[in-house]
Amino acid sequence: MKFAIQVNEGPYQHQASDSAYHFTKAALAKGHEIYRVFFYHDGVNNGTRLATPPQDDRNITKRWGELAETHGLDLVLCVAAAQRRGIADRDEAKRHGKDADNVAPGFHISGLGQLVEAAIQSDRLMVFGD
Amino acid sequence: MSKAPPPPPPPPDDFDDDEGPEIVKRFLYVNRRAPYGSIYALEALEVVLIGAAFDQDVSVAFIGDGVYQLKKGQDTAGVEMKNFSPTYRALEMYDVEKLYVERESLVARGLTAEDLIVPVEVLDSDALGAVMEQQDVVLSF
Amino acid sequence: MAVLHTVNKSPFERDSLATCLRLARPGSTLLLIEDGIYAALRGTAVEETLCAALGSHEIRVLEPDLLARGMDPAGLIEGIERVDYGGFVDLAAAHDSVQAWL
Description:
The complex is a heterotrimer. Chain A is α/β, with parallel strands linked by helices. Chain A contains five helices and five strands; from the N terminus they run βαβαβααβαβ. In chain A, strands 4-3-2-1-5 form a five-stranded parallel beta sheet, with helices on both faces. In chain A, α1 (16-29) links the parallel β1 (2-7) and β2 (33-39). In chain A, α1 (16-29) runs parallel beside α2 (60-71). Chain A starts with a strand and ends with a strand. Chain B has a single domain (26-140), classed as DsrEFH-like (Hypothetical Protein Ychn, Chain: A, 3-Layer(aba) Sandwich). In chain B, 23% of the residues lie in helices and 17% in strands. Chain B has four helices and five strands, in the order βαβαβαβαβ. Chain B has helices spanning 40-51, 86-90, 103-108, 125-133, and strands at 26-31, 57-62, 98-102, 121-123, 137-140. A five-stranded parallel beta sheet of chain B has the order 4-3-2-1-5. In chain B, β2 (57-62), α2 (86-90) and β3 form a beta-alpha-beta unit. The longest helix of chain B is centred in the first third of the chain and has 12 residues, at 40-51. Chain C is α/β, with parallel strands linked by helices. Chain C has four helices and five strands. Chain C has helices at 16-23, 47-53, 63-68, 85-94, and strands at 3-7, 29-32, 58-62, 81-83, 97-101. In chain C, strands 4-3-2-1-5 form a five-stranded parallel beta sheet. The radius of gyration of chain C is 12 Å and the shape is globular. Chain C starts with a strand and ends with a strand. Chains A and B meet through α3 and α5 of A and α1 and β5 of B.
């Protein structure tokens, strides 16, 4: 079965990203395919590489990146939501005259169409939010 | 009173006409939040607009405080936020015509269909629940 | 269409559970996750609502969320079964669609 995952909230502020991560991991363990994980609204904040969470707790951004690398996951940060919230890759930063970029390894920025496309191409859409 | 509707969105950058038989799913966008107090209403609308380019069978439901998104007469000058309510009137232009409002939600809030900025189909819970059950994909915000 | 409804907020914080129950058709399944698990325990103001719902829905609770919040599985309303994340995945696969009540 192919799953599309939508994450509506940022790391730590809500449990959405955690729940999505554990669901994703469990689905992969059962041999399902994760078509795409799409981060929307504050969910784009999962994709900043500038976070330094406390060492004695889970590193939400890092573990998404590691899961993506192990399983070849497509982690997408919505471009419109990212622009609003100050998440930019090198191209975006250059395009908008910013002096830095901050997308974490494993994530990339793309359009809202990727969420709709994932929902069309997958068998199930799972939404995690507040 | 309202601004002109926004231009149609550009085709999505990953759209490929040659990718096999076209899949058409029943998409339902569920709106349950009031406008302005949070960004969910606005950003949900942005998905609906972009999604319109994918030629799916689209419905939009307004439930609970989501019905407030359609309230006429929104004047955002004092809060300096963009008034995006006219965009609901533009949905028709994007072939998004199935707008459902839950009757119980309207009644609980002292509203009627006359208070809304766009014509909608008002359904009671059972009827709306039946519509929801038929959907292939449900997006929540 | 067999629908899986997920509810992640506490019934005392938000109307998500109430709204879900109003709109969910008989025969659909409810999964309580995150703060939604609080609805699954005996002795609360919503116990009757959940018991009534059990008449037309299967109700499941995500065990890791139950335990994280210090809730005793022995205190679950009778008829509400626990699942782990694997069980969550199985539920999603076994139903035709999933509706998230945030």
